[in-house]
Amino acid sequence: MMLGEILLLAGAVLTLLSALCVARFDDVLLRMHALAKASTTGLLLGSIGAALMLTNANDITTLLLAAALNLLTTPVAANLLSRATYRSQGIATRLEGADLHAGRVNVEPSEAD
């Protein structure tokens, strides 16, 4: 019982840290990184903690299915959003270091023809 409560608390702390990072960071890519990584891990820990405290098998499988679906979809969605943000021209992004994809960014499909 104690392990479930610790995992729930750890998940809540990670979700809180994710929200604080979104409010704190200036760059849109940093915000999306903090939101995708910490909130996914927080939800996963919270779901496992809640599943350990439940007794009904239907409730446990529902929680684990929701955690698995979140684990599969959130990183992919964050990657697609960050890629679209990187390729957009109206959103300012601050990149530190060398931009390895600077020459490989495609223009709009209508302009490429």
List the topology elements.
Blueprint: H1 2-24, H2 28-53, H3 57-87, H4 109-112
Comma- or semicolon-separated keywords:
113 residues, mainly alpha
Could you characterize what this model shows?
This protein is mainly α. The protein has one domain. It contains four helices and no strands. It has helices at 2-24, 28-53, 57-87, 109-112. α1 (2-24) runs antiparallel to α2 and α2 (28-53) packs antiparallel against α3 (57-87). It is elongated, with a radius of gyration of 19 Å. The termini are far apart. The model has no long low-confidence stretch (mean pLDDT 84).
Q: How many separate structural domains?
A: 1
Class based on secondary structure composition and strand pairing: mainly alpha
Shape: elongated
Q: Element order, helices and strands?
A: HHHH
Which percent range fits the helix content?
over 70%
Structure at a glance:
The protein is mainly alpha-helical. 74% of the residues lie in helices and 0% in strands.
